[in-house]
Amino acid sequence: MTIDGDTAKLLAFIDSHGLDASTEVSRGWASIGAIIVDASLQRRQNYEATVKPRVDALIAAWPDAQTTSGFRKRLATGTLSEVIDWPSPGRLAQIDDLTRVFEDQGIETVEELRARLTDPAERPAFRDALAAVRHVSPKTLDYIDTLSGLATGLTTDVRIRRAAEAAGIEDTSYANMSAVIRAAADSRGWRADDLDAALWHLGVESARESSA
């Protein structure tokens, strides 16, 4: 199936569900610690059941983790696994490694993170540094854009793949769905990340309904 064919299927699906992506949808955090933890835990996990409750717990327990230095001080206590109820060392190591990149890059606040990600001269090198961390994929890099409140990337994941499959799209790979979402958004005059967010929220609601 071509991009045009998949785009037509997605547009038909959008219309059948009455989705409107003409307004901006935000999925960001105001805490560096929350962004790093969310980005590290999201891989192959259910967002509503597994990731979001742990990020919420982090924000409640460590309000000073809004800054990189504040988050580092908290990490030094060695209690992160208890705070977010996550014993597996792999994700905890990724959180530490990402924090170190933020420190090395001199990024202290979410505002500074957004500034770095929107600076065409500095963005590539910063993303390269993030990508050097184990398990940080192109999807994770785009997801960090979204978590910082930027309208610059797509976060195609299992929720959106679920919507794509319901639309009859066979190739639900990250690359194909990113291209299809951009093409569908362009055809309606929407921002691609707003359509991505609308499909993401539809996927979350579908998951809730299936588990009810």
Query: Which term fits the overall shape?
Result: globular
Q: Specify Rg, calculated over alpha carbons.
A: 18 Å
* Strand coverage percent: under 5%
Overall pLDDT confidence = 87
Distance between the termini: 34 Å
Instruction: Show unreliable segments.
Output: 206-212
Sheet with the most strands, sense and barrel status: none
Description:
The chain folds into 2 domains: 3-25 and 155-207; 32-136, no CATH class. The radius of gyration is 18 Å and the shape is globular. 35% of the residues are buried. Helix 2 packs antiparallel against helix 3. The two termini are 34 Å apart. The protein has helices at residues 3-16, 32-41, 47-61, 68-75, 80-83, 89-104, 110-117, 123-131, 138-147, 158-166, 174-188, 192-211. Mean pLDDT is 87; it is low at 206-212. It is built from 12 helices and no strands. It is mainly α and 212 residues long.
In short:
This protein has helices spanning 3-16, 32-41, 47-61, 68-75, 80-83, 89-104, 110-117, 123-131, 138-147, 158-166, 174-188, 192-211. The protein is mostly helical and 212 residues long.
